[in-house]
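User: Design a sequence. Structure:
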């Protein structure tokens, strides 16, 4: 599984996202634990314990405790996602509004227009965040627009 992660998931997903995100803000990003000089060092264990005493990433944590405040190490995981909710209320708002117009949705006849429009209004007002549901509708409408359906 480690080999599969190293050869597919890391370069094709995680590292690509890090690269794009850092380049977008002219930042230089480093991933020292997967540097070839570290991985190929004579002292590096090929199989390391993933947990000890019920604590995940035990070995990495021991090293980090020497250099990083504990509260940064012992916090819940945080996902890596785009701020879609904010984008739909900001830079993508006009595009989304055109695809989610009542007239357009009625002409297509595929969705419950009232429900989509209500979700859109709740999302815009900030009362509820419907970004994922709305994104699915937006992708359908963008597809229909592209292919003339």
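Assistant: Done.
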């Amino acid at each position: 599984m480690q080999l599969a992660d190293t050869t597919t998931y890391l370069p094709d997903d995680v590292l690509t996202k890090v690269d794009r995100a850092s380049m977008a803000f002219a930042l230089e990003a480093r991933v020292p634990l997967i540097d070839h000089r570290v991985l190929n060092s004579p002292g590096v264990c090929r199989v390391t314990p993933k947990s000890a005493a019920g604590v995940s990433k035990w070995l990495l944590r021991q090293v980090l405790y020497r250099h990083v405040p504990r509260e940064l190490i012992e916090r819940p995981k945080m996902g890596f996602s785009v701020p879609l909710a904010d984008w739909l209320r900001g830079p993508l708002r006009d595009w989304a509004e055109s695809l989610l117009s009542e007239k357009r949705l009625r002409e297509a006849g595929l969705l419950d227009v009232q429900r989509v429009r209500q979700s859109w209004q709740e999302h815009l007002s900030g009362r509820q965040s419907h970004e994922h549901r709305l994104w699915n509708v937006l992708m359908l409408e963008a597809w229909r627009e592209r292919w003339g359906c």
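The two ends are 43 Å apart (CA to CA). The first strand starts at residue 51 and ends at 52.
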